[in-house]
Prior knowledge:
Layout: H1 2-27, E1 48-54, E2 57-59, E3 65-73, E4 84-89, E5 95-96, E6 103-107, E7 112-119, E8 127-135, E9 142-150, E10 158-164, E11 167-169, E12 175-183, E13 194-200, E14 205-206, E15 210-212, E16 218-224, E17 232-242, E18 245-256, E19 260-267, E20 271-272, E21 277-286, E22 297-303, E23 310-312, E24 315-317, E25 323-330, E26 339-348, E27 351-360
Parallel strand pairs: 2-9, 11-18, 20-27
Antiparallel strand pairs: 1-3, 3-7, 4-6, 4-8, 5-7, 8-9, 10-12, 12-16, 13-15, 13-17, 14-16, 17-18, 19-21, 21-25, 22-24, 22-26, 23-25, 26-27
Amino acid sequence: MKIRRKFLLLALIGLIGLSISIFMIVGCGGGGTSPKAPPIFEPGTPAFLDLGVRYSNVNLTYSRSAMLFARVVDNNGDLIDGTTVEFSVNTTEDVVFNNSQQVYRSDTVSGFATAIITYRGTVNWPVAVEVTARAVSVASVYDTETVVIYDNPAVTPNLTLEADPPTIPGNGYSTSIITARLVNGYAIPIEGAIIEFGLSPALGTLSATEAITDADGEATVKLTSDKTAYPVTVVVAGCTTWNNIATCDIASVTYTPQVLSAVTLSADNYVLASGNKTTLTAKLWDEEGFPLIAGIVVEFDGFGCDPDLYSLDSFALTNDNGEAKATLYNTILPGSNNSCVLTVTAGVGVITDSIDIRLSD
């Protein structure tokens, strides 16, 4: 009996222990579902690196070097001493560090590693060099910066304007191409710059007031002449601001007076009965085949009929289309049994044209 009681007591104690174990497991949320504790970083392990540059724009006119600063801290934000930082560049052309190589290593002191980058060549155009600083012990900890290397001529714009041709007829139709060319101090074309154009005096028309330079550094506009009876010189100005430097230039274009080359005469009606009229149109043309300017006196005259049988304007002025218009009246009395062929001439000086118009009663 004693043995049986002792067995039951031991069994009861075992059940109580099992229940406590199960309670502890359930109370702790189970083995696989409990949240993980955050990782613990050892102090002194590089976690962040910031690369800074003193004089990120290196002007070779004054200096050839720039100083680099790599700041290394651990996950707690504390500066780390003794960490090796490797500096490198993305080019092998004329860029070196303190050791005259394209790769340089330096240990941090008070959390900083330093290096000096030097450009040994010459530049005809600004050169962008990408510098990388990396913690050797932790390759994923790095930073990059860009150093721009240039000299004064490389970033100094020079603008020139040229007119082709520089002399055009002042007929309101002829054109001259104005070409602006923008280069730096080494004659390297500058692409993508906006050139603004203006005209003085405002005689003529520019096809645009601004244009963008192409890969050759050129931007063009077209100048159309004004109509003029005397020589006129206009000035086309071009200006741009590049690299915060403004530069301008001018080109001159001379309009020459139109030279009369031909006259063409026409009439609305070539047969006029008594009391009717017709409009005569004399059109003046220059050597280029364009109408002459307004305000030119054109003389009209008639031959072949008695002056009492018609009335004709003796002169007229050309309009903007180079046309001079006169009116011819048939003054023959009705039933007078009169008729004739009138030859009408129109022109300026010895340059004339003529047509025949039949007059009847």
